[in-house]
Amino acid sequence: MLWTDLREFLDRLDARGELRKVAGATWQEDIGALTELMTERRGPALLFDDVPGYASGYRVASNLYTSARRTAIALGLEGEPRDMAQEWRRRMRDMKPVPWQEMACGAVLENVQTGNDVDVAKFPVPKWHENDGGRYIGTGVCVINRDPDTGFVNAGAYRVSIADAHTCAAFIEHGKHGYRIAQKHWQAGRKCPIVISVGQEPVLTALAGSSIYHAPEGVSELEVAGYIHGSPYPVVCGQVTGLPIPANGEIALEGFLVSPAERLIPEGPFGEWTGYYAHGRRPELVVEIAAVYHRDNPIIFGQPPTRPVGGYYNPNLGNDDIEWQERLERSGVGGIQRIYFLARPNMRVVALRQQHEGHVAEVIQALSPGGSQYSGHHIWVLVDDDVDVENVHEVMWAIASRCAPEHGVAVIPGNAVWQLDPRIPPEDRSLPGTEGRQSYTAHNLVINACRPYRWLSDFPPVAVNSPALREATLRKWPHLFNQKGA
């Protein structure tokens, strides 16, 4: 395996100067505030110990994936961020699921509490943002459940807060695998068995959040993790549910997700990935905790969202959207040079090398959602491949000089049920239910800032020196460009 556990990854980060240890930070304010500030400044990973009110050794780790460099280390990649992103694409094209391996014992079983001994509040769970409505143990978690019909095991990252010693509240968007599996159990008249794994090794953590790779339908993230590790993923079986639990994880909470028809409890607000408290405090799903497993001196891994202006909290290999580039290429659309997040959460720039008349229209058609879930409120900007997609000024220049509004702007109908989108009116938000949540119509915007292919050769040339001359000038006069303000 690439990693035995989270601790091995932290040791590697420490050896490379990518980890800072902090003693005495409070769960009420310090841990969350330091995490946010360090994320915005693209600083190192953080490991908190000696949290006031808790035993020394009960730790919290954060900022593990907030740079492409650390994400690459976690995934066993080397090189420059853009090269690593493309290498990751190539590697995952050949993905073949590797079944997990059940172990008789594992480090996560060093401490086991069941029944009245269960106490979720024994861990130093932070309040991650100042205006959060509670303490969230589930930000970088793997929430594991099993499809009762097919046996498929899902591991997804859904937010989980502590309600009391025996109870958690969970927020899961409708349509996610974890919710769809739970619906089958509820509709059969039973609670959904569930495991909340906290602090598993970094590969499974990255896969559960689905920011770098979405497992194919019917393939478990545990099986994908086995492929990346090059060996079967080690698990132990939960004593209450029989669900697979990462054998060397730090903490696991085992229990049952209650049907929303039976019971809901207040959850939120929580500062989410859009950069807003869009959801408020509302009734959400109940998790009844039946057993707690944890290692000696356990580590909570926290991956709280931060405002997406200054940095990114989730696993990333830079700002390239490799998932959408892969989708477009698989759909048969060629010429896609790069897809880049110019602004989170949903503004992307597509760099295109035009190959024929109608090529841009083919790209727009491929971007059309076709009624798929979570397809609303995206903004796409299409540019030629001479535009630096990382340079917001160049992108805006392309829009200002190449987009003809009368036929270069398109609004594409979409369908979305995201509850965290700040643009959804309060009256259109919905509660969880056994049938899911109501949809909200949210359209997408496409801005065509490409030169017209029909007269591409006649389009006025860009007034800029060649890359060779520019690079030669920088090499010849380096001292002029190393001064402040140069």
Could you characterize what this model shows?
- By secondary structure, this protein is α+β, with helices and mostly antiparallel strands.
- It folds into two domains: 82-302, Roll (Pnp Oxidase, Chain A); 322-456, 3-Layer(aba) Sandwich (UbiD C-terminal domain-like).
- Helix content is 24%, strand content 23%.
- The chain has 13 helices and 22 strands.
- It has helices spanning 6-15, 30-40, 68-75, 81-93, 177-187, 202-209, 221-229, 322-330, 359-367, 392-402, 405-408, 467-476, 478-481, and strands at 19-23, 45-49, 59-62, 101-102, 111-114, 136-138, 142-146, 153-156, 159-164, 167-171, 192-198, 234-237, 244-246, 251-257, 265-267, 282-294, 299-302, 336-343, 347-352, 379-384, 409-412, 444-449.
- Strands 5, 6, 7, 8, 9, 10, 11, 14, 15 and 16 form a ten-stranded antiparallel β-sheet that branches. It has a five-stranded mixed β-sheet with strand order 18-19-20-22-21, sandwiched between helices. Strands 1-2-3-17 form a four-stranded mixed β-sheet, sandwiched between helices.
- It is globular, with a radius of gyration of 24 Å.
- It starts with 5 loop residues before the first helix and ends in a 5-residue tail after the last helix.
- The model has no long low-confidence stretch (mean pLDDT 90).
Concise description?
By secondary structure, this protein is α+β, with helices and mostly antiparallel strands. It has 13 helices and 22 strands.
